[in-house]
Known about the structure:
Elements: H1 25-33, H2 39-45, H3 59-68, H4 70-73
The chain binds iron/sulfur cluster.
Iron/sulfur cluster binds at residues 3, 5-6, 8, 17, 24, 27-28, 38-40.
Amino acid sequence: MDVPFCTCDDLTCPYNPVNHDRGCVPCIAKNLREHEIPTCLFNAVSPDKLPEDADDWSWGSFARHVQAHPRASARS
Ligand code: SF4
């Protein structure tokens, strides 16, 4: 299914919308189950993650990501 606002570039992920016809549902369900934040929200703040958080999609990593990019996070 085409999700035009999805910026996740992991096309091998089974939850990526290019691999099924259920939109964001599988991705959100997986993120809720594993206490993670979807890639699109990380990228909305900034595509540049902290090196130590490169493969960490946890809520804590997202909090650090927001703090590391205060200008992007303050946009309205
Ligand atoms: S929730 Fe997941 S599938 Fe939906 S746009 Fe964000 S990263 Fe893509």
